[in-house]
Structure formats: C-alpha cells, structure tokens
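Q&A log
Question type: sequence-to-structure
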Amino acid sequence: QVQLVESGGGLVQSGGSLRLSCATSGFAFITYAMNWYRQAPGKEREWVAVITSTGPSTGYSDSVQGRFTISRDNDKNTLYLQMNSLKLEDTAVYYCKASGIDSWGQGTQVTVSA
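Response status: OK
Response body:
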C-alpha cells in the first residue's frame, strides 16, 4: 500500500524559509520520479517541482524557480522541498506524489504572513 506522509509546514513570515519532507513507503521509491504539488484556497492543485529517479535532474514551475529546491534521499525513501524567500502567494497545502502512481498524502499546510 502506497503511503505518502508530508510534514514540515507551518506559519512563516514573508521572506522566510521552510523545509518540507515527504516520507514514503509501499513502492520502490528509488525507481520513481517524485513531485511536489500545492493547492491554495479556492484554486486548483498545481504542480511545483519534479526530481527524476536517476541523475537526478530537477524541474520547477516558473513561480518557484530560483527559490525552491527539490531533493531526495533514496536511502530514507524521503523527498524534500527547501523553500526560501517565501511569498504570500506560496500559501497552500503542499503534497508529494510519485509520477505514475495515483496516490496522495494528506498534505502539509504552509502559511506565509506579511
């Protein structure tokens, strides 16, 4: 059974930083590209970042490019998202997801205040 458990969210002031984690189990983590998504209040879920299984290579949405860094620890089956220079518009619930696996965790709330 695929399990994705996000953590590390919280309340932070604009310009601050947070590091999100996603602990995974139930699938071969090392063989999957992994993604972060987010959903702001009243908006659809949007893709944020991806990291491939090998390389690894990374990709980011334009809105977070240069501020967020996605990484993974294959020994710990864990995905990370380092978020710097946070903005009000980064406020959302953040989710991790394996490419090709239709399963979501409960998400972790990130709230950026002025």
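Response note: The chain has a mean pLDDT of 97.
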